[in-house]
Amino acid sequence: MSYYVYILYSTKLDKFYIGSTQNIEERLKSHLSNHTGFTSRAKDWEVCYSETYASKNEGLVRERQLKSWKSRALLEKLIQSKGN
Asked: Any idea where the domains of the chain sit in the sequence?
């Protein structure tokens, strides 16, 4: 089964969110539903970037790498260079 690393974007917040999952569609639904946490602050999240990995471990390593960048410019460059 594939594992995905994704980046969400909210126009309302003008923020990115990085996560990972086995099912992007279901995970996006949960981000948009009534819940607590960072993504609960907006209901306009869209997947603007994703990568596919063969294992959960590989995906989690990549997710941590992207989160460690702490740079909006690097994330925007990644999104623009590869797209979805």
From this structure: 3-82
